[in-house]
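WARN retry 2 of 3 for item q-0093 after timeout on previous attempt; input resubmitted unchanged.
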Amino acid sequence: MRERRRRKVRSLRRSRPSADGWWQSLGQAGLYLAIGAPAVAIMAIIWFYSPIVTIQPAAMLNLANVNNAEFAVSNTGRVTVYNLLFQCEIIQENGGRLTTSGNIVHLPSGRVVEQSVSTVSPNENITRNCGLGAAVSPRRTVSIIATAKYTWPLVKWTGYYTRRFSSRQDQRGGIALVPDP
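OK item q-0093 returned
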């Protein structure tokens, strides 16, 4: 005689995940969330409260002296920046470089010192020029690299913003500084 085949009945226990597995998965997700959420929050706070400094030409370039090129340094961020120093590097056509400071102050005693701007508040502009030095012919000037160095609030990190400008003749015959991409 033929024997009947017995069907194997799957138990419900095996098809359903155990409660221990679910709790273990939730525990791992909680650990990732406990580490990840504060890290994302800290990065968002740093991004939100980071200083944003920009540099733009403030006027037409003086044909007699490139060192008198004026720049508007703006704090467009949400926090005040401290100890702002401004510097220009003038690059001539022949490859020569001249670095000047826009932080020169003449004291009543006759001394000449370099002094930073103590604070630049949010949405505040200051005007700086490329400082004192030998006159450079604009025909030989290819570009000016303007750099603003500043200190962040609270954490006292140092930040830099550098922008390169090329001298170009405009439609009226004047020399204008055009930002390089």
